[in-house]
Design goal:
Layout lengths: L6 E4 H6 L1 H11 L2 E5 L2 E6 L2 H8 L7 H6 L23
C-alpha cells in the first residue's frame, strides 16, 4: 500500500465532497482526512485495502501446527475421555 497521500482533506470538506473523495481514492490513491489539524483516517479503495489486509498462504494456525517438527514425531497424548471435570469458581 502506498504511503504517499494524494490530498489531505479536513473533516468538513471530506463530508461535503464525499463522492469526490471516494473517486480520488480510487484514481489517485489514499486520501488523508484530518481532524483538528492532525491525521485522523485514510480512505483507500477496496482493492488496496484487500491487498494490504490479505493473509499470506500458510498463515493459519493449523498450518503452523502442521509445520511443527513434532507433527510427524509419533507423539501420542492420552487423556481421559470420561465426563468433564468440575471446577469451582
Amino acid at each position: 500500500m502506498t504511503t504517499q497521500h494524494a490530498i489531505t482533506w479536513g473533516v468538513a470538506e471530506a463530508k461535503n465532497r464525499f463522492s469526490e473523495l471516494i473517486e480520488r481514492a480510487r484514481r489517485e490513491g489514499p486520501q488523508t482526512i484530518t481532524r483538528h489539524g492532525k491525521s485522523a483516517v485514510v480512505v483507500v479503495d477496496a482493492a488496496t485495502w484487500q491487498q494490504a489486509t490479505a493473509r499470506p498462504p500458510g498463515d493459519r494456525f493449523v498450518d503452523f501446527l502442521l509445520a511443527s517438527p513434532l507433527s510427524n514425531s509419533g507423539l501420542k497424548i492420552d487423556r481421559p475421555r470420561d465426563s468433564l471435570r468440575t471446577v469451582e469458581l
